[in-house]
Amino acid sequence: MSYKVTGVLAAACAVVVLAGCGSDGGRAAAPPVSSSSAPSAPREPLPAEFDAARGWSISADQDVEFAHPTGAPEARLLLVRASGPDGVHVVAHDAVTGAVRWRSVPVPEPEGDLDSTVFVTSDGGREYAVLATTGTGEDNGVDKPARSTHLYVYGTDSSGAAVTPERDVSLPVRSGDYWAQSDGRVFLENGDTVTVVRVADGSMTSYPEDDAGLRPPKECPHAIGSCADRMAVVAATASGPLVQGFQSFWVPGAWISDDVKPAGASSNEGFRNVEVVGSPDGQSVLAGWPTEDPTEWLWALHDAATGQVRGSVKCDLDGATAHGPSGLEPVVSGHYLLAGRVAFDLSTGQGRCFAETSDRRAIELTAIGGDTAYGTAGSDDTPVSVSLSTGKATPLPDGTKVPDGVAAGSAYLGTATNGGERILVYPPA
Description:
mainly beta, single chain, disordered N terminus, 0% helix, 5-stranded antiparallel β-sheet, 429 residues
């Protein structure tokens, strides 16, 4: 789905990690909370685009742990979630120097299976950081613990050591999932209901599974049942909610996937059904369509306003093929989107597949910086860089560390400080 959080996710110019996707907007950087430099990082062998000599690091601070690095490109920040005995909060570092620009006041962290995380999203020309928490409160042995989900919203242009949220959007439910789009919307799933929140003003719209307003724009019967038998909102577009149904997806009153099926694709093959992978900004929709070949899928980028296919590519997912599109977590940077071994240019619709070919090993891509992606090739995990504009893959020197992500232009290694680990951050060269 759209940067969906399942257990633990790093991701956002919306969550899931949407790093480096925006300009600085000409806004001056807020003064740091402390001008002292961040602890240095060891000089690791990195891709040439990053400066190994100017690295900085994040370590556990007494009993406070840090996790989920997330880029705020407009404010040029790397955000992390801090978790300790007082609750959870956000720490915003200058992505180049590591200096702390701002730190939020701790808020309670309920007990739950879904980890608290930080999203970055923009609305109305402003960039926001959203700290999402969900779960149940303390059990006193008598009263049933209260369930709650909170979205604490901060401007990324904040400053100071005790920043309070501009708003606390709360619901008396425990969310089973949450995810975000880059256009200021966060999605909360609770049972058979999905609630869409606009972080700029806290407004909410809830869509129960049986909501009549979610029904497809035309009848779509199947041999057994109908596409409307399993309806769930997975994204939001300018024309309305994007709904995933059984073997179909659609925007109510606008279009349905049955009418925009790409050549060579099918809505259903055996136990494989067409599924939405994500919508990064509410303008494009990435979907996985089964084909007659059980080892491959056809990945299509659809226009969210019309459903028309903007580009497509056939590609296998190796071991993930059996699980289909639902097992993917898209990564977006600038106008590029990665999903498993597939990359799309969101501006042109061009798709590329990095599965194994007759003359190239399979490439697993994990991070994007500018128009370059980084990952590993083959069973021996050879480090590689890939030009997403040309599709050319280049092996990197032996021992090169592939970034776990790129946030506001800086590469990072590691995603949490638990167990004595550090998060190492390296600015652009």
